[in-house]
Records
---
Amino acid sequence: MAATADTIFDQHLTARAFSLTSAFWFAFATSIGMVAAGYLIAPDFMANIPYLQFGRIRPIHVNLVLFGFVTPGLLAAAHYYVPRLLRTDLFSQKLGLMSVILWNVAVVSAVVSLSTGHSQGREYAELIWPVDMLVIVSFALVVLNLLMTVRRRKEPVLYVSIWYACAAVILTALTFSLGNVIWRPDTGALLGIPDAILLWFYGHNVFGLLLTPLTLGLAYYVIPIVTRNPLYSHTLSLIGFWSLLVVYTHIGTHHLLQVPVPTWLKVVATVDSVAMVIPVMVFLINIWYTAKGKLGEIHADIAGKFIFTGTIFYFFVSIQGSIMALPQVQRITHFNNWVIAHSHLGVLGFAGLSALGGLYYILPKITGKPLYSRFLADLQYWLVLIGIVGFTVVLTIAGLVQGNSWFAGETLYRTLPEIHSYYVVRLSIGLFIALAAYIGLYNVIRTIYFNPGEEA
Ligand code: HEM
Ligand code: HEM
C-alpha cells in the first residue's frame, strides 16, 4: 500500500518532535545571545534585572544552543536515517516521544534554574544535579530506542552513520555523567586541579563525542544521496571513525595550557590536538571525493547545501583548533574573543548548519509533503552564512587586539574601549542569525502543520 501523508506523519513522530524542538530553541537561544551581546556593549542595559544578568544569560545561551538547538536537530535526523539504513522501523515512537518530552523538560528546567541563579558554576556543566538527571534519563531513552532499533534490524551491514549516531549518544551519556560528577549532587565537582581536568575532558567531548559524530554521521548519509554518488571509501569512513574516538578523547587539557596541570598531560593534549588532522582530513577527503563533480547537485538541494557548507567550516574550525592548541599561539589567543569566534565557527558553522541541513532533508520525508518554502530556507542559509562569516572576522580581530594588548602588559580595562565597536558590529550581525532562526521556525511549523503542498 502506498504510504499517504497521514501514515508517514504517524511513522515519524519522534523525528518530527525533535525537529520542532530544535527550531524553537534555535530562535530562543539566539534571542538570548542578542541580550548577552547587548550586555557586552552596555553592561546595565537590562536595568540589572537579576534573572537576566550576564552571568546567568551566558550559560543559558550556551546550554540552549548545545542542548536545545544543535543536538535535537541532529537527533531528529538520526531518528530518521538510523531506521532507514537498517531497513526497519524505529523501535518505539512512544518511547521516542517520551524522550523528546523529557528532553524539553530538561531544557526548560535548565533555563529556569540558571536564570534563578541555581548554577554549579562549571563551564558547560553549570546545570544543577536534578537537571543533570533529567538530561541523563532523556539520553538513556534515546540510547535505548536507537540500540533496540539496531538490534531488530533487517539490514546486517552497519553503515558508518549508524556507528557515529550510536557512539555519540552512548559515549555522551557516559561522559556527561562523569563530567558533571553526578555522584556528588551538592557541588557536582571534584576538588582543585583534578576537577578542572575532568571538566575539560567532558567539555571538549561535548563537541568531539556528541556534536561531531552526529554531524559526520548525517553528512555520510546525506551527501551520497544528494550527489547520487556512492561513498568514495568505506575503509576511510571506518578509519575516520576509530581515529576520531582515539584522538579526540585525549585533547580536553588543551583548554588548560595556562593552568598548573601536569606537563605530560598538556603535551598529550597538544600533540593529539595536532593529530586531529588525521580524523578530520580522512572524513573530509572521503566526503569531498564523494561530492566530486557534483557541486551543481549540492547547490540545487537545500539540505546538501547546508551540510556541504558545514563540512567546509569543519575544515576551518579544525585547522584553527589544532593551531590554537600550540602553547605559543595560545599565549595570545586564550581567554579572549578569538576563542568565541572559534566556538561560533564550530558550533554554528559546522554543527549548526549541518543540523539545519538535516532538518531540511528529513522534513519532506517525515511529513510526506514538500518543504513549505524553499525560498525561506535559502534565505535562512544566506543569513546564517553572513552571520557566521561576520562573527568570525569581527571576533577574531577583537581577540587579536585583546590578546596582543595583554601580552604587551596592557590592563584588561584599557582594552575594553578598543573593542567596543567590534561588539556593536557583532550585535548587528547577530540580527541576521536571529532573523534566520525565526524564519526557520516559521518554515518548520508551516511544513509540519499548515502545509498546502501536494502529497509527495
Ligand atoms: C544572534 C546570534 C548570536 C549572538 C548575538 C551570540 C552571542 C554570544 C555571546 C555574547 C556569547 C558570550 C561571549 C563572551 O562571553 O564573550 C556567546 C557565546 C557562545 N555562543 Fe553565541 N551568539 C549567537 C548565536 C549562537 C549560535 C546560533 C550558536 C550555536 C549554534 C552559538 C554558540 C555559542 C557558544 C558555543 C558560546 C560559548 C563560547 C565559549 O565559551 O567559548 N551562538 N554567544
Ligand atoms: C581538530 C579539531 C579541534 C581542535 C584541535 C580544537 C581546539 C580547541 C582549543 C585548543 C580550544 C581552547 C582555546 C583556548 O581556551 O584558548 C578550543 C575551544 C573550543 N572549541 Fe575547539 N577545536 C577543534 C574543533 C572544534 C569543533 C569541531 C567545535 C564545535 C563543534 C569546537 C568548539 C569549541 C568551543 C565551543 C570552544 C570554547 C570552549 C570554551 O568555552 O573555552 N572545536 N578548541
---
Amino acid sequence: MESKILYKMRKEYTPGPLTEDIMSASPFIQFDRWFEDAKKEEKQEANAMILSTSTPDGSPSSRVVLLKSFSGEGFVFFTNYNSRKGREISENPKGAILFFWPQAARQVRIEGILSKIDAKESDDYFLNRPAESRASAILSKQSQILNDKNQFDEAVKAISSHESLKRPDFWGGYILSPHYFEFWQGALSRSHDRFAYKSINGIWSVNRLYP
Ligand SMILES: Cc1cc2nc3c(=O)[nH]c(=O)nc-3n(C[C@H](O)[C@H](O)[C@H](O)COP(=O)(O)O)c2cc1C
C-alpha cells in the first residue's frame, strides 16, 4: 500500500489557558470537573478510555473500555478476567488509562495498579446490564479465536430469555488505583498546558510540565 502523508493534518486549539490556581489540589476532584465538562460537550462516549496493560517482559497492549465508576479510590471498568487484558493484569498489575476529549482539546493520563473489585460489586453491576449483554458476557471467551459467529449469536439469543443469568466467576470489575495523573489542555501554537500529579505516601504534589 502507498504511504499516506498526514503532515497537513493539524488543528489549532483555542480554549482558555490552564493555570495552577484553577487546578484542584486533588487530582480526583480535577478529574471530576473535567469529566462533567466532557459529559456535556463530547459527541462520543465521554467515559470511553484507553486501557494499557503489558506483559511481565514489557510488551504493551491497548484497547478501549468504558469507565463505570470512579471515586477517591480509583477508576472501575468491567471485563472478562480471562481476556488478553485479564491475563496480562494477572501477571503484571501495572496499568494506565487515557481519556481524550477532543471537543475540549483535553487529555487525561492516569497510571496505577490494577486489582479486581469485590465480587459483590461486580454482581451488582452485572445484574444492571441488559439480558443480552449478560448472556454475551457469559458465553464470550473474550480474546480467543471464534470460528462460528452465527452459532455464538444464536446461543446468546437462546439464553437471553432465561430469567436469572448470574455473573460468571471469569467476568467482573477491575479498579485502577492511581499514583500518577496528568491533565493536558491544548493551547494556541502548541503552547499546551500540562499539570502532573504524583502521589508519594498518599500525599499528592502537582507540577507544570513543558508542553
Ligand atoms: C467504545 C468501546 C467500548 C468498549 N468497552 C469495553 C468494556 O467496557 N469492557 C470490555 O471488556 N471491552 C470493551 N470494549 C472492547 C475492547 O476494546 C476489547 O476489544 C476487548 O475488551 C478485548 O480486549 P483484550 O483482547 O485486549 O482483552 C470496548 C470497545 C469500544 C470501542
---
Amino acid sequence: MSFSQPLPLALSPSRLSDFQSCPRRFQHASVERIAQPATYATAKGNVVHHIFEQLFLQEGPLRTLEFARSQISLAEAKVLNEQVCEEIGLNDTTREKLRREVDTILDRYFHMEDPTKVVHEGVELRINTTIDGVPMLGILDRLDRGDDGELTIVDYKTGSLPNRNYDTQTFANADLYAALCEHELGQQPKTIRLLYVAHGEAIERTVTTPVVVARRNAAVTAWNRITTYYNEGDFPATPSKSACRFCAFKQQCSANGVAVVH
Ligand code: SF4
C-alpha cells in the first residue's frame, strides 16, 4: 500500500515518542491523521497551559494569582469548544470539578515559584530547525534566562508525578528541546525544570551533552526509519501493555487483526 497523505513536515518530541512506543501509532496519528478524541485530562491540561501562557505574556509585576484566576473562564472559552465538550461529556458537574481543579493547580503553582521574578526568552516558543537533514519542531512551554545568562527549559506537567526512580524517559522531550535550542540558538540550556503543577512539586536536572547528543541521534535514526516505513507503505505494529494501554487506536488495530494488549 502507499499513503495518500504526506509525511508530517517535522518530527516533534511527541511524534517521536509515538513512533518509539509503536510505529503503527505514528502511522495513525501523524500520517493518516486520524483524530484522537479529547479526554478530560488533555482538556484540563490545555486550559492550564493557556492560563500560564497568558500569565507569562504579562510584564513581571502583573503576573499575580488574581490575574491567573481571571483567565480561567477565558481559557475555558478557548479550549472547551463544542466538539471537546461533547468528546469528554462535559456537564455542569464536571465543568465545576474542572474549574475547582484548575483553581487548586494555580494556587499550588504560586507556592512553587514567584512568576513576577521570572525572566524568559519566550513562552510557547516554537523552534523549527533541521538537524542532520531531519526537520524538527519543538514548542517549549517556557525558556527562562537566569541572572548568570544560562537557559532553563521549563515544562508544565498537569498529570501524575513520575515514580521515585524516574528515568531518562521523564526528561526525554525536554532533552530533545535542549538539542533544538543548542542547534537554533547556539546555546545549550543548562537545566531542565519539570513543574508538576497539580502536585506542587518540581523536578530539576542538569542538561548534559552526551544525553542531548544521544537524544538528537535517536531522533535522526527514527526519522530515517519513518521515511523507510512510509516508502514501504506500512509502519509495523508493536503492541505492548505500556504502548496499547492509553492508545487511541485500539479499535483500528483490533479491526486489522493486530493483537492489541489490554
Ligand atoms: S493499539 Fe497498540 S498496537 Fe495498535 S497502534 Fe496503539 S500501541 Fe500500537
---
Amino acid sequence: MRSVAPDVLLFANLGAVQLNYGMRTEQALEAIEMIGADALVLHLNPLQEALQQEGDHNFKGLIEKIGVLCKELPVPVIVKEVGCGISERTARLLAVAGVAAIDVAGLGGTSFARVEAFRRERPEEVELALAFSEWGIPTSEALVSTHRAAPQLPLIASGGLHHGLDAAKAIGLGADLTGFAHAVLAAASEGEEPVRRLLDGFAWQLRVAMFCAGAPNIAALHANPPTEIK
Ligand SMILES: Cc1cc2nc3c(=O)[nH]c(=O)nc-3n(C[C@H](O)[C@H](O)[C@H](O)COP(=O)(O)O)c2cc1C
C-alpha cells in the first residue's frame, strides 16, 4: 500500500478482543510496520463475536490492555465499533486509557447481526441472530454522546452514512472525519473508476452543504451545524 500511496493516511486494523487471545504489542507493531500505517485502529465488535459460532467471547479487562498499547506503540491508537456505536461510558473509559481518536461506527448502516445471521444454515439460528438487527446506538446519538464524554478527542463518524450530505451532518454533530463502508461496496465491486466517481460526488455534496450552511471551511461547519438531522 505504502509504495503506491506514499502520503495517504493509512490505518492498520485489528480486533481489540485479540488482546485476550495472545496478541501483544509486538504483533500490533508488526501489523503497523507491514503497511507503514500512520495509526492503529482497534475494533470493538462484541455483538459480531457473540453471534459467530467461532467467535472470541472474552472481552474482560480489554480497557487496561488498550491503555498499555496506547503507551507502548509509536503511532496513535484509534478505537471503533463496527455498526453498534460507542456508548458515552465507553468513550469516557477510552479517553482515560489514552486513545487518540474514536470512530463511533453506529447503528444505521451495516449490521453484523444480519451478516452473521446470513452465515447460519439452520432457519431457527438465522431468526435468533436477526433479533439483534437493530441492536446499538444510532450514529447521530453516538456522535453527540461521545463528543460530550471526550470533547478533546477527534471523532470519526461511520455507520449508515450514504453520501456527502450525511458527511456534512456528521461533521455538524462533532465528527472530524467520516467513514463509508456499505455506501462504496457496490461501486468497489465494479472497479476503481466507479469508486472515484462516487467519492468525487460525495465531496461535491459536502461542498454544496457547506455553501448552503454558510460554512467556508470544515471548522465553520462544526460551529454551524445543520439544525435538523434526518
Ligand atoms: C465488508 C465489510 C468489512 C468490514 N471489515 C471491518 C474490519 O475489518 N475492521 C473494522 O474495524 N471494521 C470493519 N467493517 C465495519 C466498517 O468499518 C464500519 O464501521 C461499519 O460497516 C459501519 O459503516 P457502514 O454503515 O458505512 O457500512 C467492515 C464493514 C464491511 C461492510
